[in-house]
């Protein structure tokens, strides 16, 4: 068996693209189908889920450490930009949004959050728009919270404050 060095240590926060921010709770050696495997055991508190990822597959699935401060600043700056709404069918846009969220890329997740944000004085969103917005903003908030050593609720309030401050210039007041 070839031994692969662990890239992540117990206690590290990591981003698993399809699930968001989790924490390495254990490094485990297991025999699966007659093969010895070294596994990262990840815990995702929000989903109450535990995931085991083989060392040699971690990079391939896009598992990574938390974003750099530079990437976080870029993502927060993205929130202040003009929302880009394509005039394609909703089902196609929804697929694109989901793909961006599942990419694990913080800036792409910030783009989805910005594009689907609606200030309180704007017309209501559809249920599916709201669901995707909440998925994106929650994913962004969890990584922000882990980086700033705060909780998801405080991080989400920070994100919404940035969006509410930037939004008025892009929306006409609803009468």
From TrEMBL:
Q: Name one GO biological process term.
A: rRNA transcription
Under the heading SUPFAM superfamilies, the entry gives: CarD-like (SSF141259)
Q: Where is the CarD-like/TRCF RNAP-interacting domain?
A: 7-117
Q: Which Pfam families match?
A: CarD_C (PF21095), CarD_TRCF_RID (PF02559)
Highest taxon above the source species: Bacteria
Provide the protein name. CarD family transcriptional regulator
């Amino acid at each position: 068996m070839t031994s692969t060095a662990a890239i992540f240590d117990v206690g590290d926060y990591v981003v698993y693209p399809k699930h968001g921010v989790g924490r390495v709770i254990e490094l485990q050696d297991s025999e699966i189908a007659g093969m010895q495997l070294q596994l990262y055991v990840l815990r995702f508190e929000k989903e109450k889920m535990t995931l085991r990822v083989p060392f040699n597959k971690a990079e391939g699935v896009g598992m990574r450490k938390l974003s750099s401060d530079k990437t976080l600043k870029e993502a927060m700056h993205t929130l202040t930009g003009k929302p880009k709404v394509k005039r394609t069918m909703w089902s196609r846009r929804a697929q694109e949004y989901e793909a961006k969220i599942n990419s694990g890329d913080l800036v792409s997740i910030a783009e989805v959050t910005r594009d689907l944000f609606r200030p309180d004085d704007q017309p209501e969103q559809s249920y599916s728009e709201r669901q995707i917005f909440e998925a994106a903003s929650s994913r962004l908030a969890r990584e922000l919270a882990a980086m700033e050593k705060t909780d998801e609720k405080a991080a989400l309030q920070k994100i919404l404050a940035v969006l509410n401050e930037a939004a008025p210039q892009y929306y006409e007041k609803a009468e």
